[in-house]
Amino acid sequence: MSRRILIAGNWxxxxxxxxxxxxxxxxxxxxxxxxxxxxxxxxxYLTIPAVVEAAKGSALEVGAENVHWAASGAYTGEVSTxxxxxxxxxxxxxxxxxxxxxxxxxxxxxxxxxxxAVEAGLVAVICVGETLAEREAGETAAVIxxxxxxALEGISDLAKVVIAYEPVWAIGTGxxxxxxxxxxxxxQIRAILADLYGADAAETVxxxxxxxxxxxxxxxxxxxxxxDGGLIGGASLKAPDFLALVxxxxxA
Length: 252
Fold this sequence. Notes:
Structural class: alpha/beta
CATH class: Alpha Beta
Number of domains: 1
Helix content: 40-55%
CATH superfamily: Aldolase class I
Distance between the termini: 14 Å
CATH topology: TIM Barrel
Strand content: 5-15%
Number of strands: 8
CATH architecture: Alpha-Beta Barrel
Number of helices: 11
Largest sheet: 8 strands, parallel
């Protein structure tokens, strides 16, 4: 089965509304002609409206970086699925390693957020991945199995699910899993999906690589059988770098 490549930018806590709109316009203006991969940018909450407006008429979709599981209520500082949909968002990142590391995200809360997103009609980009200590202890497979299975509990339809594999030790460190190392984990994730939902359903799910994908390493990573795109951090903040990744996705 041919899965459409997805190049997703996670801006993290970067870009004001004006800066984000300018970046999106620069990306949109630089897109090559012909078949493109699916292209997604995920700005901070406050920047979303300006980015959605700037992206109108282009091939770019807009996502958010997190979402709460409750429809509304006394959850100071949180944002609901209805708020994201109202703002024009189509996707949301769930369970990013930085949310797990710095903000107390757990496998349970990742599952709650993912279920809420899918039930609301948003595409949940669910992040899984091991730390350096876990990899060095030989626990990668166990961590990926636990995180993936728990994140998907109660989700019956994979149509609104994307998985992103983030080797935490390769984010922002300049280290990158070799394409073979990345493919090994991506294949494991697809095997878990097949176990849970059947082989046919598993083949439809995009699994992104989220460990410092750059223009230099993207073609080799995207050539792997089970790597269906990238969840891009730093390289998504500069139009030339992001456009180079889009081009790599178009050629994969």
